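B., you asked whether I could sanity-check this one before it goes into the benchmark set. Here's the sequence:
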Amino acid sequence: MNNLAGNLLEELTVQYLTIPIGGYQLRISESVVVTWIIMAVMLGLAIFLTWGLKVDNISRKQAIVELIVTKSEALVEDMIGEHGKQYAPYLVTILLYLGMSNLIDLFDMKLFGLSLKPPTKDLNVTAALAFMSIILIEYAGIHQKGVRGWLKSFAEPVAIIAPINFLEIFIRPLSLCMRLFGNILGAFVIMELLKMVVPVVLPAFFSCYFDIFDGLIQAYIFVFLTSMFIKEAVE
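And here's what the prediction gave me:
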């Protein structure tokens, strides 16, 4: 159990990249470094996949890209509803970012002395994502209903529950943040326990599950819940 506690503490410890600038030391957390790497990969793929697009006689690459984009947006639009479909591109971007973030564990990467971990294991990252989601949710409600209609929605279905509805503005991001962070961290704890109890074969199988499928499922759940909250806000 001491090993488990030590590994868990190491996993939760955020490493920093220190860059000397003049007489100051700029400290950048590993979660920011990994996020920059993911952003660079996503940007590079976007440029490569959209290079030389055509209207007629499209290439196989363009056909595959159009299919992926169409299916991804359709998946989100089914969750978010007709009134919120303009937010689908943002949600698809978050889905891709979280999916790639949660797959970082598949690659034992080191950069500038940092052992890179999924940024979703940093509570600051999941809190920032949750905060962005709640801002989008409330903006969608105000944009659809107007300020007066948005304020009136807190008194629905009866005015007496307005304080509870108002508290949801703060409860929802906390729920999104802790759900994503807790599930990713919980998968790590389960893997460490399996390595202690059954050190051969079985952990490798579950490692594939938690590193691939569970990470993608958590990305989907985060986007699904955000979509449901936006749908509720605009309808």
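One thing to flag: The chain has a mean pLDDT of 78. Otherwise nothing jumped out at me.
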